[in-house]
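Continuing from the previous page...

OK, I double-checked the sequence for Protein quirky against my notes and this is the correct one:
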Amino acid sequence: MVRKLIVEVVDARNLTPKDGHGTSSPFVQVDYYGQRKRTKTAICELNPTWNEVLEFNVAKPSDAQVLGDMLEVVIYHDKNHGPTTRNNFLEEELAFLDSR
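Thanks. Re-ran it with the corrected sequence; updated structure tokens here:
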């Protein structure tokens, strides 16, 4: 049986403009034990709503072993929207899994 970690990416507020025109086109990238998933890009939006679910495979056999694991959640401005040549960093959070 393959166990899954489900991460729901809902929204962000008051992001920093990064496109040179007063907006950003953000996406969220989530890393969990070498697995990387991302949301779609919210074009020209400083208060984006994604409402996306990202699924990760969990190799650990029990919930108790997953508690305390870390998710790295980073919001970037998408280089494909605006004059930038790379994905520009906007925000980062480290989230630790707990039983709540």
